[in-house]
Please model this.
Amino acid sequence: MNTAIILILGIPLLEIYLFIKVGSQIGALNTVLLILVTAIAGIWYARYEGFNTLRSGMSQLVKNEMPLYELVSGAAIAFAALLLILPGFATDIIGILLIFPVTRKIILSKYSKNYSKNTDKLKKKNFIEGEYEDIEDKDGK
Model:
């Protein structure tokens, strides 16, 4: 089966299962309040971390360096905010893991190692070394 189909069907089923389990333990109203509190707190903290990442990226630009980590981190924060907005406990856990700088750095470093291995292979494969010499016409053009 396609991974996208599994995710589209699996995530809502997991969320419904968790709603039922948590709701039976703490009650329906408390479950709804918990979902609202995680969404509000997650959005507030995502905004805070987003501004920190933006500030860090601007300082990298002032130093005339490319803010690559800040760009990827900003995208991860935006995705984490989306996950925190969506109602559910599983998406909230993933969003919380992505929103905190320590766990975000661990997750991003895992994927960046895979990316750097692929780009190193491409650089070695597509690189041609050579020399050139300017040749002028006899007319001086």
In short: The chain has a mean pLDDT of 84.
